[in-house]
Write a structure and sequence with these properties.
Elements (H helix, E strand, L loop, with lengths): L1 H4 L2 H4 L53 E4 L1 E2 L10 E2 L1 H13 L3 E3 L1 H9 L6 E6 L5 H12 L5 E4 L22 H9 L3 E4 L12 H19 L5 E3 L7 H9 L4 E3 L15 E2 L6 H29 L88
Parallel strand pairs: 1-5, 1-10, 2-3, 4-5, 5-6, 6-7, 8-9
Helix pairs in contact: 3-5, 7-8
Length: 391
């Protein structure tokens, strides 16, 4: 068992175990751990913080969060989700040299709310692979870092069967998840069965979010406040479901119009990422924050209802005996001065050529300015003839 679990035993050696029968109860932060053979009462999920119809408020910028999956040695990795322990140690050492500290997303969001997240970077591990405790945890502990492991509630102790072409990887067991949570590592939800949430009906969304949280809270004996969208697939209905299930935040992958507390973007990290690539990804993350906010601002400006040029213009009463200038009949041109034609009561003098002032006619009044430039932009802010980028 020691050979299989590797470094999990020394990592979790500080976790207090249930006292033997007849022994005095221990005093400390882990005294609420369940005893063998007992079952915790169902977790009580808090009510929604906002009405379901209200969209999550977007943030102008997002915290820097790195997205890992597996830390192990693999000969084949078609999805490029595995980072070798040596490369992972180099990446964590670089963060430390830069004066940054890796933390769980739960700690990052709390520090951000207090304005103390300048030197923090979120570290996340999707899918809950067993190698998180074997390889990643010891390296993180050596630098005083923490992280978040997002686990699939219904697949604990099994394998990553959803990756049809990738290598089979063992997932954390229930006991390992319990031990990691007791040691202070954040455990977040990755749904029930690693199912993409975008496009699902409301009842399925509620089941994937609420039930996975309830199961994990019973397992770890504490609150589970973080969610991670499987495959990074997210839409507005999914963010509503996550928020109303009582989560405090949710992690996505890419920047999008939904970027905010319930769709936090993250930077993918692979085995090829050294110091220079990580620095470039940090700069790209900030650039995408700026572009996303600019697109939000432009879209909000285009969808805002137009106001009249003068505040009193919309309130000015319209006389019933007057018609709009555009509806007035076009004045008729008189061929000769003094000519009276049937049905033409209003005459307008026309000067003949050679008379003082030259030939002049009275033209019809100009109507409203023709907005030729209007409509040259399509809904969504893209000009006609220019396609939107794929991502």
């Amino acid at each position: 068992m020691d050979a299989e679990r590797g470094f999990v035993r020394p990592v979790l050696s500080g976790v207090r175990r249930p006292a033997a029968p007849g022994a005095p109860a221990a005093v400390g932060p882990h005294t609420d751990a369940p005893r063998p053979g007992t079952r915790r009462p169902p977790a009580q999920l808090p009510r929604s913080r906002r009405p379901i119809a209200e969209a999550p408020a977007p943030d102008p910028s997002s915290p820097w969060i790195l997205m890992y999956h597996s830390v192990a040695v693999e000969d084949e990795d078609p999805y490029q989700l595995t980072v070798s322990p040596e490369r992972f140690a180099e990446q964590i050492a670089w963060l430390h040299r830069c004066g940054r500290r890796g933390v769980s997303v739960r700690e990052l969001m709390r520090a951000r709310a207090a304005g103390r997240d300048d030197k923090l970077v979120g570290l996340t591990f999707d899918d809950g692979y067993a190698d998180f405790g074997r390889y990643a945890v010891p390296i993180l502990q050596a630098y005083g870092f923490t992280a978040t492991a997002y686990v699939v509630a219904d697949l604990l102790g099994r394998a990553n069967d959803w990756d049809t072409e990738g290598p089979r990887k063992k997932l954390l067991t229930v006991q390992e998840v319990t031990d990691l949570a007791a040691a202070g590592w954040e455990i977040g939800s990755h749904g029930l069965g690693h199912r993409a949430l975008s496009g699902l009906p409301a009842d399925v969304l509620a089941d994937q979010t609420r039930e996975s949280r309830r199961a994990l809270e019973e397992m770890v004996g504490g609150p589970v406040t973080g969610f991670c969208y499987p495959y990074g697939a997210v839409d507005l209905a999914a963010t509503h479901a996550v928020r109303d299930a009582g989560y405090d935040y949710a992690c996505a992958i890419a920047h999008s119009p939904l970027t905010g507390r319930y769709a936090l973007p993250r930077c993918y990290v692979g085995d090829r990422d050294g110091a220079w690539r990580l620095r470039a990804k940090r700069g790209r993350h900030r650039l995408r924050d700026t572009v996303t906010e600019l697109r939000r601002t432009r879209l909000a400006a285009r969808t805002r209802p137009e106001r009249p040029e003068r505040p009193d213009q919309a309130e000015r009463p319209v006389r019933a005996d007057r018609t709009d200038r555009a509806d007035r009949p076009e004045p008729k041109v008189r061929a000769a001065e003094g000519d009276q034609r049937p049905g033409n009561d209003a005459v307008a003098p026309v000067r003949r050529s050679g008379e003082p002032g030259g030939a002049r006619t009275h033209l019809p009044p100009a109507g409203p300015a023709d907005g030729a430039a209007r409509g040259s932009e399509r809904p969504g802010g893209e000009r006609a003839g220019h396609g939107r980028a794929a991502r």
